[in-house]
Write a structure and sequence with these properties.
Blueprint lengths: L1 H50 L1 H4 L3 H14 L5 H34 L6 H29 L3 H24 L5 H26 L11 H35 L2 H15 L2 H20 L3 H29 L1 H9 L1 H33 L3 H54 L6 H16 L8 H21 L7 H11 L2
Length: 494
């Protein structure tokens, strides 16, 4: 039962994330041509602000999911409305403050973008300012729906707003509304539509959410505390994901940045699968922990998620690593293939392990250990900067890629050990760990200088990969969801 529910919800997430991406691929070329590089750059900034709710909402959307799921799992569903109202009230106030600041700062932002006094840029920023309350409230409402396992409605709204985010600007320039201000107001309408749709679903699935009540100060402070620690992680993680490019530009060249960042972006798109799974896993683990079954069914669920991700992603990464050079040659030409193939092979290791790390990451957050994760990332950040600087300076793009992937491997090991320790699980990880280790060696073998040449090396790496995949497949749990999980799912309304 549980596995069917999770697979269904993961597939819904993939559709919700994938369809807007397809529309983006089709509409960005004509938008670039119609707006020009500079004005299109302003549009990308609007898109970026609208999509960085993980930082803008101070982690309150995720904190809402965790607290509401825990209340449902503990059999205190009546608390859900109070938690939702407290979180949404905070997000509304935060949205108003953020919108006012953006409105007032619009001329300064235009000047910073080297467009001082430009009417289009200022109007676009002010249109975005009006959408800030809608963006942040929609983040909170999505968190409420995630706690109710309502991934069908979430992804229906996600598809509508995601497609319109790219289709509305394309429509505007097609009919002759070639003005950033007009486009920004259209996007504001899209965000308002998303807010109304999310609100309608929340009112249906959790009646009483929008009944005004006095927010509980202790509950509000707890949401802010948990969300604040999540925000630290939401800031530190992107920094560690993108600082390496600036370092390469400083110690190597801008051409080296392109050879490095392009294959990194290509392989990193596969993190979509882990993101789709982790958003489904997070509320379920929070419920199980609150219900007192975190070390039993919850731990088995983590192992199942980890193995499933490995079995799905590892063959793709293995093929990308084995044929990195011909893939880059066909896509971007021989120069990119010559300089970018080895970094791409190293990125296959990092992205695979990063995908697996999402499982212990959401496990710790679901159990209320957001501060632990934030502390780990704060320690990692300066160490990573030093490592990537030294390796990029002495070994170029391949050195920077090794620093990037190496940091992720360490992160996975630490998070996995902490996750197991926090639940007190007795189940071993020896075979799973062995499968991941052999898989990492198979991927790394393609990028090492001592790799066997030509087809002999490729065959050896593929054979090693087959062993890793077989080890992981042999450890797939042969267990049913059980009555405890079924009870949790019934309480959540799934």
């Amino acid at each position: 039962m549980l596995r069917g529910v999770i697979v269904r919800n993961v597939l819904l997430n993939l559709v919700g994330l994938g369809l807007p991406l397809l529309v983006a691929i089709l509409t960005i070329p004509p938008l670039t041509g119609a707006l020009g590089t500079g004005r299109f750059g302003v549009l990308t900034l609007i898109w970026a602000v609208a999509s960085t709710v993980g930082v803008l909402d101070l982690g309150l959307g995720r904190a809402l999911t965790q607290h509401m799921s825990a209340a449902i799992g503990a059999g205190r569903a009546e608390r859900a409305q109070a938690i939702a109202w407290a979180g949404l009230t905070l997000l509304a106030a935060l949205g108003v403050l953020a919108g006012a600041a953006l409105w007032a700062g619009a001329p300064a932002i235009a000047a910073f973008l080297r467009q001082p006094g430009d009417r289009e840029t200022i109007e676009a920023m002010r249109a975005l300012a009006w959408t800030m309350p809608a963006i942040l409230l929609a983040s909170g409402l999505r968190g409420v729906l995630e706690s109710k396992a309502a991934f069908g409605p979430i992804n229906a709204v996600r598809v509508v707003t995601g497609v319109l985010t790219f289709a509305a600007p394309w429509f505007a320039v097609t009919v002759g509304w070639n003005d950033l201000g007009v486009i920004a107001w259209l996007l504001a309408g899209v965000r308002l539509l998303g807010l109304l749709l999310f609100g309608a679903w929340v009112a249906r699935l959790l009646p009483g959410t929008f009944v005004p009540r006095r927010p509980e100060s202790a509950l509000s402070m707890e949401l802010l505390r948990v969300g604040g620690w999540m925000t630290v992680t939401n800031i530190a993680s992107p920094l560690m994901s993108y600082l390496d490019r600036f370092v390469i530009g400083a110690v190597q060249s801008l051409s080296a940045v392109a050879w490095y960042a392009t294959p990194q972006e290509m392989v990193s798109r596969l993190l979509l699968f882990a993101g789709a799974l982790s958003s489904v896993l997070f509320p379920r683990l929070a419920e199980l922990h609150a219900a007192g079954d975190g070390a039993g069914t919850g731990w088995r669920l983590e192992r199942l998620a980890l193995l499933a991700l490995f079995l799905v992603l590892f063959p793709v990464m293995l093929c990308l690593a084995a044929f990195a050079e011909p893939v880059l040659d066909a896509w971007l030409g021989p120069e990119f293939a010559r300089h970018g193939a080895a970094p791409m092979q190293v990125f296959c290791v990092g992205v695979l392990v990063n995908s697996l790390a999402q499982v212990p990451f959401v496990s710790l957050q679901a159990r209320g250990h957001a501060a632990t994760i934030a502390a780990i990332h704060c320690v990692q950040l300066p160490l990573f900067v030093v490592a990537v600087w030294q390796l990029a300076e002495h070994a170029g793009v391949i050195g920077a890629a090794l620093a990037w992937s190496g940091r992720i491997v360490v992160d996975f090991v630490v998070l996995r050990m902490l996750s197991r320790a926090r639940v007190g699980a007795a189940a071993g990880m020896r075979t799973e760990t062995g499968a991941v280790l052999v898989g990492v060696l198979a991927l790394a073998a393609f990028a090492l200088p001592m790799t066997l040449p030509g087809w002999t090396g490729i065959a050896s790496g593929l054979a090693l990969g087959a062993i890793a995949w077989g080890l992981a497949a042999s450890r797939l749990p042969r267990w049913s969801a059980g009555d405890a999980i079924a009870a949790v799912m019934r309480r959540s309304g799934a």
